[in-house]
Input
Amino acid sequence: MSEAQAPVDGELYAARQKIYPREIDGRFQKLRVYAVFALLGIYYLLPWIRWGERQAVLFDLPARKFHIFSLTLWPQDFYFLTWLLIIAALALFFFTALAGRLFCGYACPQTVWTEAFVWIERWVEGSRTQQMKLARAPLSGAKILRKGTKYFLWLAFALWTGFTFVGYFTPIAELAGKIATFSTGPWETFWVLFYGGATYVNAGFMREQVCKYMCPYARFQSAMFDKDTLIITYDETRGEPRGARKKGTDHKAKGLGDCVDCTMCVQVCPTGIDIRKGLQYECIACAACIDACDEVMEKVGYPKGLIRYDTQHGLEGRPKQVLRPRTVVYGTLIALLIAGFAWTITHRNLVGVDVIRDRNTLFRELPDERIENVYNVKILNKDAAGHDFRISAAGLPGIEIDYTGPIVRVGPGAVQSVPVRIRIPEDALEGGADILVTIEATDQPNLAATGKARFIAPTD
Ligand code: SF4
Ligand code: SF4
Output
């Protein structure tokens, strides 16, 4: 817990003090800006991309179909999502073991949206000093105007975020039309407001508190660290004893370390901590303190890197080890899972068949001494192109199939039900038996599937 937030006089609750992070420029800040633009760009633009007749990425819950460019996932394919989640979790463990909280600093939605909200805040209210001055200033027309503008822009941005989120589940162009005419359904309205509201509160007001108090990852990530994990760290041996000095002074002769105690590293920290106190769970590894300290070191003419990415072993002057049992195990597992995923998804059967018995009639005895059963054959075409299917039956001698055909057209990503009658000579049966119904695309014979059904006979 930072000093600013320590409870007073033994009280258990400490009110949050707003943090005004100082603006910083540097190589890591540039990387963060690129990451914010890339990730937000993908998030806001992706639902607007078209793929043929439909939206390229659409999680169509009512139709139970997830479209991701040329790929359509059906409920039967949802294990792919579980598979992806396992890969994502392992990747998080792998990168955490390797490079600490990289995800938190550069790619976590909380960090990314907070960064965007901070930019809006700076654009409207000015620098850190101007923001603090405005906060202390008495209520006035100018203050209301500035604060009001900021809250309005935050709200507009948050609602756009909520609208985009819902646009992944409802065709976004349709949704935009509905919003323009105030005709959205209750669930669409709820989710736009809910997601927009969550963005507004989390990125505008909660900010570092989400990382400190709500994020479970912050709590357990240190369990994945070892002495070879890359962390953002202050080189205590080099920096201490800290203290102010005049430029050009031989600080070593005065017994001082390289830290000039300017507190720039604390002022730029979005979570308000002092990295010089060691690794703290509040640190989201944004590297702003590295950029700030490097700038100071450059000004005073000392080598950069007093605060830097390093490992515990590196700080102790011992060799760094990237290949360790845990990184090798995580890396191998991820590689195997990705290879398995790629193979399975490219080799999955794009058609399926369900053979359902007509429950209204058990069987019919025909005048020509044959038994007839009626079924409903459901042809599922998961392919991005439509196909013509032929249906055949097998499993008993003399089996014959009758349906409106011989070709059944099934559109891309569609299901077609076909009533079929299957007839078998009475003397081929000794009671009921299992039969096989096969569907096969006429243009692509590898697109085929077989379903099993029970054929009911009088002695069954
Ligand atoms: S200590 Fe440094 S890296 Fe950690 S959150 Fe603060 S500024 Fe970012
Ligand atoms: S920015 Fe560098 S020199 Fe300044 S207080 Fe922090 S560690 Fe010391």
About this structure: Residues 232, 268-271, 273, 275, 283-289 surround iron/sulfur cluster (ligand 1) (CB under 6 Å).
